[in-house]
Each structure stands twice: as structure tokens, then as C-alpha cells.
Hints:
Elements: H1 3-19, E1 22-27, H2 33-45, E2 48-53, H3 55-65, E3 78-83, H4 87-101, E4 106-112, E5 115-118, H5 119-126, H6 131-170
Antiparallel strand pairs: 1-3, 1-4, 2-3, 4-5
Helix pairs in contact: 1-3, 4-5
Amino acid sequence: MAREKKTEAVEELAGLLSQSKFVVATDYRGLTVAEMSELRRQLRGAGSEYHVVKNTLTRLAAETAGKQALSELLEGPTALAFCHGDMAQLAKALTDYMRVTKTTLSIKGAIIDGKLIDSEAVKSLAALPPINVLRARLMGQLLSPIYSLQYVLTANLRGLATVLNARIEQLGGTTNA
Length: 177
């Protein structure tokens, strides 16, 4: 590879690394071209990119982007998945592809905001529900005490209204409430 092309490749990788909060390193040995194309298509659907990289150039790009921890994952043939959207969606797409196709693709680890995580943590991330579901659960948890307090505070008034309505019916009147 010519020196100019190497410089361009390092700059491109550094740009991708700096733009991505989540980068997954995989070992792609044994995948055919058709399988790689299918994997890239699925990851594109998850808002991610998948690139086969040279380890030495990636080490240089990682230093440039301030993600030196990535260098620990650069052993043997490596391909990187760059996340531009939901982290869990990328992790889920990779684990689903590995489970469905039963290929030799394996996850080496990942970088989240410059911190190194192992392959088991990536698989755990894939098991998380989508971000919208997590937000809805959080809002439910936050609102639960408010609804409980409101129920407790209005219980005496409801009880009084029930007693008054029963007394009105007992006296032969009609109730409106």
C-alpha cells in the first residue's frame, strides 16, 4: 500500500473512531464474501458500518482518535463495527447474525466511550431491550410513587363520598355521584 493511501486510511479510520461511541472488534476468519456482504447489510440496517482493517493502521488511528484501548483487541484478522446509533441494536445485530448463521464470526471485545469491554459484556448489551422501552420503564418507575401518593391522599375523600351516597340512598334520595 502506498504511503499516501496508508495516510488516507488512517485518517478515515480515525474519523470513524472519533465519531463512534461504540466500536466492536470481531474476528472474521472463515466468512465467505457472501456472508460478509450479508453481515454488512444487516449492520447497515442497525445504523452501523463494518470494515475489515489492518491492525497497524488501526493502532495509529486509535492513537489519533484518543481510543488507545482498542489496540488490545487488534490481534489477528480484525474487522470493526462502528456504531452510529443505538449501541444495543448493533450488539443485537451481531449476536443474532452469529446465532442464526452459526458462522465462525466471533466478537473480540468493544470500546464504549474509550473504555474496553469484553465479548461477554457485548453479548449482555445485546440482551437489553431497546432504548425506548428502557426509557418507558424508567418513567413508569419515577411516576409510580406519585400515583401511589395521589391514591392514598384521595382515599379518605372517596370513602366519605361513598358513605354520604349510601346515607342518601338510605333516606330515599337519589345520588348524582
